[in-house]
Write a structure and sequence with these properties.
It holds the Pfam family RNase_T. One of its GO terms (molecular function) is exonuclease activity. Keywords: Exonuclease, Hydrolase, Nuclease. The protein is α/β, with parallel strands linked by helices. The chain has a single domain, classed as Ribonuclease H-like superfamily/Ribonuclease H (Nucleotidyltransferase, domain 5). It contains nine helices and five strands, in the order E-E-E-H-H-H-E-H-E-H-H-H-H-H. It has a five-stranded mixed beta sheet with strand order 3-2-1-4-5, sandwiched between helices. Helix 3 crosses helix 4 and helix 6 crosses helix 7. The two termini are 31 Å apart. The relative contact order is 0.16. The protein binds one DNA strand of 23 nucleotides through strand 1, helix 1, helix 4 and helix 5.
Length: 217
DNA sequence: TGCCAGGCCCTCTTTAGGGCCTT
């Protein structure tokens, strides 16, 4: 896959029956948006039937009920369709290790493959928004001052708001560190560094850009 | 019916423990 701009990715979110696909939990909703140069140009949202009744806790947590899922298509059918939506793109998710486990498990059941990379907006936010009271999505939406697009804990609204938080973090890299073009791989690298080295890394990106500009001049 | 995980990150750390995040 060629070098990707940080603001041209898929941002996705799953609602699920629990925390662990290894213990039988399944996806019940997928929501995703496609960013192109910082603008949402496409959306994907589907409920899916996991094949068993979901707990009352999940009904209350997400607002998705057993009645709503009763006539929805099975996970395999929805995820086969989603494989086409995400194909050829990297993706971002809030606490991506959680969504990655469900994406891999559900795509495997649907007999589909995906070869892109993921980046965690939660880990990036711990470097970019070190002054936030915490790094839950709901808190970051308020902290970054981005639009609330719907109910929290519904997949498409969470994906949209994650996309806006992601975009605001890219803007901060641009404005605070003077890095005009930010790549997906650079955000991934940033997410893996300690807070101290994250600051140094961002400063080095700006210096690299300035050296590039000098060579052009 | 009720239960389960896992990776990151900080510190009173590294021969560890516990909070944060996601559903």
């Amino acid at each position: 896959m060629q070098k990707t701009l940080a603001d041209s990715v898929i941002v996705l979110d799953f609602e699920t029956t629990g925390l662990s696909p290894q213990y039988g939990d399944r996806a019940i909703e997928i929501g995703a948006v496609r960013l192109e140069q910082g603008r949402i140009v496409d959306r994907f949202q589907k409920l899916m039937n996991p094949g068993f009744r979901i707990s009352r806790f999940i009904e209350e947590y997400t607002g998705i009920t057993n009645e709503m899922l009763r006539r929805e298509p099975p996970c395999e059918e929805v995820m086969a369709e989603f494989a086409g939506f995400i194909e050829g793109h990297h993706y971002v998710a809030h606490n991506a290790s959680f969504d990655r486990r469900f994406l891999e498990a559900e795509l495997k059941r649907a007999k589909r493959t995906y070869t892109g990379e993921c980046c965690c907006s939660l880990l990036v936010s711990r470097r970019i928004y070190q002054d936030a009271p915490n790094h839950r999505l709901q808190t970051l939406v308020a902290h970054a001052g981005v639009a609330r697009t719907g109910s929290f804990h519904r997949a498409l609204a969470d994906a949209e708001m994650t996309a806006y938080v992601w975009q605001s973090m890219i803007e901060r890299v641009r404005s605070q560190y003077g890095v005009p073009v930010v790549f997906f791989d650079q955000m991934r690298e940033l997410s893996k560094l300690s807070k101290l080295y994250a600051h140094r890394y961002l400063s080095s990106l700006a210096e690299s850009h300035e050296r590039g500009q000098e060579r052009q001049d």
